[in-house]
């Protein structure tokens, strides 16, 4: 790797943070893997995942969005699509069709683990992070080393995330979506609707990154609309 490629990752991550998003790890293209190409002779070599953790993305979206017409996906596509062009990258999104393996990509970064709830858990951000895009680069980038942190859930004796849900939607058999949705449509379910999933809030990790009421209500309401 050249000195330029060594500094490229830091430059890219700083640009992501300046845009109000959070860098969530890198991974290299595996031999023979098809990650797409920018041109026929420029295959993508490395990918970086981009998301939100903390209030910065939500604050920017709240200030810039057109509430009646612009969804979070549409806004993310516009903002991160432009950032990708500035960085010379190809942008991929979780809402692309056909669906892309974002969760598998996340595990390849070495920064996250599978939580008892089935979603990714981060040693710093806990359950309070989400993936908004992935950028693919054709130029060599010296990928930063992972922290080497152990799976945080393995040392958690209580695992209150599995016992806190008021309708026992989480179990060893998976996630009972109908029970969760039905609960949030009741008066008793307003706590989850307005403050976010109670099971998710029970996790001791990432307490500084828990969504505020406005963001939590926005995401939970969007989740409910999927089943209306």
Question: Can you summarize this structure?
Answer:
The chain has helices spanning 3-18, 56-64, 72-87, 102-108, 177-184, 190-195, 198-201, 213-225, and strands at residues 22-28, 37-39, 42-43, 46-52, 90-92, 113-114, 120-121, 130-137, 170-171, 174-175. By secondary structure, it is an alpha+beta fold.
Structural class: alpha+beta
Helix content: 25-40%
- Strand sequence of the main sheet, in spatial order? 1-4-8-5
Following the backbone from N to C, one meets helices and strands in this order, namely: HEEEEHHEHEEEEEHHHH
Rg from Cα: 19 Å
Kindly state the mean pLDDT as a whole number?
A: 92
Number of strands: 10
Task: Report the span from N to C terminus.
Answer: 52 Å
Beta percentage is: 15-25%
- Number of DSSP helices? 8
Low-confidence stretches: none
- The shape is globular
Main pleated-sheet profile = 4 strands, antiparallel
Written description of the protein model:
The chain has 228 residues and is an alpha+beta fold. It has helices at residues 3-18, 56-64, 72-87, 102-108, 177-184, 190-195, 198-201, 213-225; strands at residues 22-28, 37-39, 42-43, 46-52, 90-92, 113-114, 120-121, 130-137, 170-171, 174-175. A four-stranded antiparallel β-sheet has the order 1-4-8-5, with helices on both faces. A two-stranded antiparallel sheet has the order 2-3. A hairpin with a 2-residue loop joins strand 9 and strand 10 (174-175). The protein is globular, with a radius of gyration of 19 Å. The termini are far apart. The relative contact order is 0.15. The mean pLDDT is 92.
